[in-house]
Amino acid sequence: MDHFDAIAELDRQSVLHPFTYLKGHASGEGPVPVIIEGAKGVRIRDARGHELIDGFAGLYCVNIGYGRTEVAEAIARQAYKLAYYHSYAGHTTEELARLSDRLLRMAPGRMSKVFYGLSGSDANETQAKLVWYYNNLRGKPAKKKIIARERGYHGCSVIAGSMTGMNFYHDHMDLPVSGILRTGVPHHYWGAMPGETEQEFSQRRADELEALILGEGPGTVGAFIAEPVLGTGGIIPPPAGYWAAIQAVLRRYDVLLIADEVICGFGRVGTPFGSHLYGIEPDLISVAKGLTSAYIPLSACLVGEKVYAVIEEATDRVGPFSHGYTYSGHPIGAAAANAALDIVEREDLAGKAATRGAYLLQRLTQEFQQSPIVGEIRGVGMLAAIEFVADRAHKTRFDPALKVGPRISQAARERGLIARAMPHGDILGFAPPLVMNEGEIDEMVDITRAALRQVTDELVAAGHA
Ligand code: PMP
Fold first, then answer.
1. Which of 69, 105, 296, 324 is deepest in the core (most CB within 10 A)?
2. Contacts of 187 (CB under 8 A, 6+ apart)
């Protein structure tokens, strides 16, 4: 047993990994633990020296790429100067005040204040409490239900996990809690009726949302939460007209809009926020991931004027805002975010995501559109997905037992590329660092082509394609 085998064994005996078959991992029968040692640019390296192109930027988060020393130095500088002080009762640091001002200037809509946490999940947990607090304070204590979308992903804590519209985040864990309602996923490819245009389909989704609100009673519905581009549920850009139609309904019934910008924020879709691209005017915004490019954990809730004015005004009656974490506004997180956002702005990573994302989508379309098992190729900015189907003409899915998506992802990995098999169908997802250049995009496409060919050949040989 060498040094790395010993580390892998230690891991097996001690770590409870997320999204892992625990028995296989603990017993050693599952895949060998992969020890990630280092990374630079768009490539990660394991302890055995194998290099992989990270076509998913970790978990859609390392937007500025790996190994950016300026961020490491900003973290170190702040740690030497002041590693920690809390932000309760008006305490602050220069980095925190600067970051907050900057976020408000970058953000869409009319945002007033920024509240900090450490993860996308806790940001959305805070958003739910803000919705309840706001409606209690303005004398509407029944207006509390939150509508989320099927296949939306908002985290895995208790309320955020309940908002997440995927059963496997709920099963056997007593979720969802009550008070979370669900509305349809805006995926034209699967959801549209024959001949229905994107506009008509969007309007139908908005009509369904309206019917849901009316059925429950508008006086009981507090908020709607959604990602500008649906992410983990399949990387699904909204169909034409979707956000305009949805927002018209929300305004009609005084329902707050929470934009979950955890993936879309900070350039990923080619604009500073996803809301900018789709004309979304949120009341509340959640950000995480790209905020520090994951160099250190940090999330934030941007609180719009409408909500903030009510909660500020109420302080005389109800006392201080009684919500916050030990690490809210952590100075090292703030320093890392400022350094990461300096890079995003200086290198115009939103602009690069727009042009290189268009290149990525064009290459994927050009290469794979004719493949007999490709149903849809979609994307926006540096988010893209290929959805595989058994029968293109009749739009039928593969038998899930064939694991077509995971097999293509695995075949790509064996050739040096991480592209993620997404849940709900056979979907290969791409969300590379925003610094990925065209040559590296070409490499991704080449590896994907080889992986797709291998799995197509296997399916044909077995009589499944
Ligand atoms: N919202 C969205 C849109 C996300 O994609 C994620 C994470 N993938 C979350 C929230 C939850 O973030 P975290 O994993 O940091 O809790």
1. 296
2. 230, 234, 236, 239
